[in-house]
Amino acid sequence: MDARIEFLHRMGDTALILGHRVSEWCGHGPVLEEDIALANTALDLIGQSQMWLTLAGESEGAARTADDLAFHRDAHEFRNLLIVERPNGDFGHTILRQFLFDVYHFELLTRLGNGQDAEISAVAQKAVKEVSYHLERSSDLVVRLGDGSDESHRRMQSALDQLWPYTGEMLMRDKVDEAMAERGILPDPVSITEVWNQRVASTLDMATLAVPEHRGVQKGGKDGRMHSEHLGHLLATMQILPRSYPDAQW
Amino acid sequence: MVTTLPSIADVWAWLDAVPDPEIPVISVVELGVVREVSWHGETLQINVTPTYSGCPATRVISMDIETALRERGIDRLEIRHVLAPPWTTDWIAPAALEKLSAYGIAPPSAAGGPSACPHCGSADVSRVSQFGSTPCKAQWRCMTCLEPFDYFKCI
Question: How far apart are CA A17 and CA A51, in angstroms?
Fold first, then answer.
C-alpha cells in the first residue's frame, strides 16, 4: 500500500481506538467534571479520526467512507498503536496513558501542520488546537495524582510500569514514517523523540514517579502485524450495530 | 425567461438570521463558521468550517443553513466543509461577545480565562474544569455570587 495511505490509516485508527477507549468512561467518571472532560476528549479524538479516515478513504480511490473503514474492517486491518487499545484500568491509568500519548500526539500534529501535504496539514492544524487542551489536562492530573496520596502514587507508579513498554512504538520510525519525512509531509521526526523524552521526564519528576529503567518495546500495532487480543473485544463492541444493520440510516 | 440570482449580500444577511443550534442568541455568521459565499453559475456555494472536529452541531448548522436558503427559493446549493485555516474564537463577531455574556456565557478572552462573571460582574472567578457542556466551553464559577457559569474557551 502507498505509504501516505498507510500513514493516514495509522493516524485515523489510533485516534479512533483511543477515542473509543476514553468514551468507555462516559457515565463512569470519578467526578462529574472529569466525566465531562473524558467525554469531550473522546469526542475530539473521534472527530479527528473521522477527518483522517475520510482522507484515507478518498486517497484509496475505492469509495470507502470513514464509517466503512471504522466499522467494516477486522483487527488485522487496523493500524493503531498498541498503547491505545489497552484496557483503561483505573482512572489514573487512563490519565497516564493519555498523558504519554498526548505529548507525542501534540508534537506529531505540530510537525504535520507545518508539512508539505496541504490536506494532511489542514487536519493536523485543526486537531492540534484540541490536543493542546488534552495535554494541559493530562499533564496537570498526572502531577496531582502522582504527587498525591500514598494510594494515588502507588497506583500511578504501577500504571507507569505497565504502560512504559508500550511507549516505544510511538517513537519508533519505520519505512512508512521515513517516507513521510522524505516527502516533507512529516518534517523533523527525530526531534519528536527528543522533546517527548524531555517533557515526559520533567512531568514524571514533578509527579514524583520513577521512570522504569528498561524499555522493552512492545510493537506490532501500527504495522498491523500483532495486535493484542484486546482490540478484537473492543471492535466487537464498537462495530456490532453497523455490522448487524449494515444499511441502517439515522 | 430571465431569472435574477439573489445578491451575495442578501445571502449573508439571510445566513445572519440562522441561529447557532447550541447558543441561539448568536448567528452562525457571528460565530464565524461561514467562511465564504459565492455563485458558481446558478449554484450557490457556501463554505463552512467546524468549530471542533467532533462537534455534533456542525452537521446541524449545515442543515439549518440549507433549510434557511431553500426557504428563500435557492434550490441549487452546495455546502462545502473547509478545514484550513482552522476556526478560531478570534472570528467570533465583536457584537456577539456581548450577546454571549448577556446569555450567561463568558466570552473568550486573550487572557485565557473570563474577565468577569457573566451573572454579577465580579472579577473574582475560578476555573472548575477546562472542559464543559459542549466542546467549545469550559466550566468556571464565581466566588462572589457563587454561581457556576460557562466560559467560551479560546482556540
Answer: 14
Q: Please choose, from the candidates B138, B69, B148, B132, the residue with its C-alpha nearest in 3D space to the C-alpha of residue B107.
A: B138
Buried b (16+ CB within 10 A) or exposed e, B77-98: eebeeebeebbebeebeeebbe
Q: Give ipTM to 2 decimals.
A: 0.88
Cβ contact, residue pair B132, A36, below 8 Å: yes
Angle between helices A91-113 and A32-60 (to 10 degrees): 40
Distance separating alpha carbons of residues A154 and B73, to the nearest angstrom: 66
Q: Is the pLDDT of residue B82 over 60?
A: yes
Query: In this complex, do A125 and B83 lie within 8 Å of one another by their Cβ atoms?
Result: yes
Nearest-by-Cβ selection for B86 from A118, A129, A137: A129
For A175, the grid coordinates are: 519505512
Q: Are residues B54 and A50, on separate chains, in Cβ contact within 8 Å? A: yes
Q: Output DSSP code: residue B23.
A: S
Going from the C-alpha of A131 to that of each of A128, B58, B85, B148, the distances in angstroms are 5, 19, 17, 25
CB contact at 8 A, A127 and A109 = yes
| DSSP H or E segment with residue B38 | strand B34-40
- Nearest in space to A23 (alpha carbons), one of A131, A108, A96, A98: A98
Q: Which residues pair with B126 in a beta bridge?
A: B141
Residue B63 forms contact with A (CB below 8 Å): no
When pLDDT is averaged across residues A198-207 and rounded to a whole number, the result is: 98
Whether the bond between B85 and the residue before it is cis, its omega within 30 degrees of 0, is yes
Task: For residues A163 and A140, give the distance between their C-alpha atoms in angstroms, rounded to a whole number.
Answer: 19
Q: Tell me whether strands B105-106 and B125-129 are parallel, antiparallel or unpaired.
A: unpaired
pLDDT in tens, A41-90: 999 999 999 999 999 999 999 999 999 999 999 999 999 999 999 999 99
What's the pLDDT band for A146 if we cut at 50, 70, 90? very high
Residue A193 pLDDT grade (very low, low, confident, very high; cuts 50, 70, 90): very high
DSSP-H helix ranges across chain B: 8-15, 28-31, 57-71, 94-103
